[in-house]
Amino acid sequence: xxxxxxxxxxxxxxxxxxxxxxxxxxxxxxxxxxxxxxxxxxxxxxxxxxxxxxxxxxxxxxxxxxxxxxxxxxxxxxxxxxxxxxxxxxxxxxxxxxxx
Length: 100
What we know:
With 100 residues, the chain is of the alpha/beta class. The radius of gyration is 13 Å and the shape is globular. Strand 4, helix 3 and strand 5 form a beta-alpha-beta unit. The protein has three helices and five strands. The chain is 19% helix and 20% strand. The strands form two sheets. A three-stranded parallel beta sheet has the order 3-4-5, with no helix packed on it.
């Protein structure tokens, strides 16, 4: 497995990731991923970070795993991506409105 990490400041990483890039690089890197695991805080920069454009850029065989806050994922765009088979599946730990 090749692990690609994203950080606000990639120069300050001490992880076991094979590559670490700036968070802003997500749109150009997401197409390489088989699994996209969100574990970011909910901020102005991450609210809706997974949106229609990101799902369209993902491989049709890729999966989204969200253990971040629910509002990091645009739920209508996720539903559309799943229905239209733009992505293979999703594991979601948090939603916009909880409890479901």
